């Protein structure tokens, strides 16, 4: 298995993260660059946030998209109406394409869920032509996601299993400053540049924030699903208290920072 991301339902993922990856996608495309006529590969397409944003960004010749999850592939195919886009199930660490096929290979919010992230970068480099570009972005779980740290810090204060969750969550692959850049260089990419991209996550109320997590979506939802009924109720109440922060329930806005990196295939 080459993805540690936990997904049950496409709609639940959209509420948890898809709506935010849609906001991040245009910033990432601007950083990675695209030009008319190019062939682009979207590695780990999810429900299509980057795939469909690419289709709007330029008059591209072809967009290939892959994901490890059949749930994501089915949903992205259901949404697709663009003949330039081809979506299939595949492994980021064993891409089903010939070398030098694409002008660019992009991965949005994927590499931190790939245990062998370096191998995925190597595969992206392999399928991109000389002079083409490889780019990726991952959330900064440790220092750049206060809305999610709010939950993991709360559960860490409640139990040892919560502390273990925090240790895993904050130090997934590619998340530390300079880590992706080093990996890109190690995999032979040149002119490597790293930057930060920021959006805001805006929630209507606590239920808007908590419902997909309570339903078991994503790494935080996977943790909640392991709790018994009493612990789940205790956790929900504690996270609600953190969300509300002494004020009535309602809208909250959190800054969200991603590390982004790009490099050229020699």
Automatic annotation (TrEMBL):
InterPro entries: Methyltransf_11, SAM-dependent_MTases_sf
Residue span(s) of domain Methyltransferase type: 41-135
Signal peptide positions on this chain: none
Domain of life: Bacteria
Gene3D superfamilies recorded: Vaccinia Virus protein VP39
MF-aspect GO terms: S-adenosylmethionine-dependent methyltransferase activity
A Pfam family it matches: Methyltransf_11
Keywords tagged on the record: Methyltransferase, Transferase
An annotated GO BP: methylation
Name this protein carries in UniProt: Class I SAM-dependent methyltransferase
Organism name: Allomesorhizobium camelthorni
Taxon lineage: Bacteria, Pseudomonadati, Pseudomonadota, Alphaproteobacteria, Hyphomicrobiales
């Amino acid at each position: 298995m080459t993805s540690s991301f936990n997904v049950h339902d496409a709609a639940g993922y959209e509420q948890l993260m898809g709506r935010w990856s849609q906001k991040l996608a245009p910033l990432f495309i601007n950083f990675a660059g695209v030009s008319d006529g190019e062939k682009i590969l979207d590695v780990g397409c999810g429900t299509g946030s980057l795939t469909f944003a690419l289709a709007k960004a330029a008059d591209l010749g072809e967009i290939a998209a892959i994901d490890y999850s059949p749930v994501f592939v089915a949903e992205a195919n259901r949404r697709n109406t663009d003949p330039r886009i081809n979506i299939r199930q595949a492994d980021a660490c064993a891409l089903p394409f010939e070398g030098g096929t694409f002008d660019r290979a992009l991965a949005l919010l994927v590499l931190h869920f790939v245990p062998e992230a370096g191998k995925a970068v190597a595969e992206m480099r392999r399928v991109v032509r000389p002079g083409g570009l490889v780019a990726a972005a991952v959330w900064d779980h440790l220092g750049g996601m206060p809305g999610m740290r709010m939950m993991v810090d709360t559960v860490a204060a409640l139990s040892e299993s919560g502390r273990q969750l925090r240790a895993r969550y904050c130090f997934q692959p590619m998340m530390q400053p300079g880590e992706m850049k080093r990996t890109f260089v190690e995999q032979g990419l040149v002119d490597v540049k790293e930057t930060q991209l920021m959006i805001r996550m805006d929630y209507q109320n606590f239920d808007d924030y908590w419902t997909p997590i309570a339903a078991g979506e994503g790494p935080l939802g996977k943790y909640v699903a392991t709790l018994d009924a009493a612990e789940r109720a205790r956790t929900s109440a504690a996270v609600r208290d953190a969300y509300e922060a002494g004020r009535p329930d309602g809208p909250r806005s959190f800054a969200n920072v991603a590390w982004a990196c790009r490099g050229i295939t020699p």
